[in-house]
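Why run this: before we spend reagent on co-expression, it is cheaper to look at a predicted model of the complex and decide which construct boundaries make sense. The entries below are exactly what would go into the expression plan.
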Amino acid sequence: MIYLDNAATSYPKPASVINAVKNSLVCYGANPGRSGHDFSVKTANIVYEARKALNDFFNGDGAELVSFTQNCTQALNTAVKGFLKKGDHVVISSLEHNSVVRPLETLKVRGIIDYSVFDVTLNKETTLCNFINAFMPETRLCVVTAVSNVFGDILPLAQLSEIAHSKGAKLFVDGAQGAGIIPVDMKKQGIDCLCIPGHKGLSGPMGIGAILHKNIDFEPLVYGGTGSESFNLLQPRDYPERLEGGTINVPGVCGLLQGLRFIEAKGINSILKSETEICDEIIYGLKRIEGVEIYRPKGDIKYAPLVSFNVNALHSETVSALLNKGGVAVRGGYHCAPLAHISRGTKSTGTVRISPSASTCKKDINILLNLVRKIAIKEFI
Amino acid sequence: MSKKGIKVGSLTYAMKGRDILYKNGYKAYLTRNPHPFEDEGCGYVIYVSNIDKKCFEVLKRNGITVKGVVDMGDAL
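The model came back. Tokens follow.
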């Protein structure tokens, strides 16, 4: 199988990540933050190391402001639902994933908040104007993706945060497609809260994510045991345990820590350069196939290394199924991002998304392009 | 001199405090509070074998709120 679906989850995982997950069940098998014996403290120490490592990697406000979650979706739900109050207004981009849209729509339907969508275009100035125009007097929060999971647009986070802050609003970022793929610096980019998955760009296992934030007052999403203040019938207020009711995914944390080390060793700029070159080569080949439409309009917008395309009038799921028959794994359909498809005109077919990794080779690209060519000339139905 | 443990907030703050004190020359260890008050419930403390007034200043300077001091007794 040629795996080109790294935006869904990265594969294969580095050997160090696999080993870390396996070994954690033996070496860090106690429950951290519950007991006082050496084994529990040893496990708590590795969890703390992971918090510190994430904080350093994303230039956050301290290891105590890094809480682990099940995934990026849970992190976003924690952030959004924990921050918003009745009557608040939220601004989001036209490229947001359902992990942002669904909690907000649900809050809206319940009459708690309202939200507006600003259009991300191929012109940065127009995008920023659209952003400003979406604000209302009640706007308290802006939630944007670092990178579109459908089209790869990299949003101008620093400029968006500057505008948001000037209007008294916070900027929360969905780092699902950005973390470990493009440089993300919370302080330099003015990010108030960053939600990340462990299993995509950071090369960790599925089942782990994190929320990194400034010292903001969040109501927890999950209430439960924290290993402390047991007679306090309310969730303790101190971070990060405030947002971590229940036992955390220690094997996931250990895997994520090793994934982070792997990325750091290679260098994120080096990884981005390699993946961008591979993606550019794929795009170059796709452009030469008649009947293929690539969704990468030129403008002053930058793109992460993923690309969406379609073939003739075929639905993207049909093309993806055919590619799968040919041994190539991609994702077709709507990618849980309805707003993106509505705003870019791909609602009827969705798109076929290719998301290579740094280990995608020339042979893989040639096989992919040959298959797409055959699909386009109807030789492979 | 009786052995004292410094009560801070969460486990993570206790670890942060331990590391900061260690960097400042204190012999700091993480352990459970051996004598939690009934209405306080359980938690972790930083046991500092060479505790003095200055270590509290070090913690405060680094943003760690001290919530009390506990006598470790025979727990160590």
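Chain B has one domain: 4-75. The first helix of chain B runs from residue 11 to 23. Bring this page to Monday's planning discussion.
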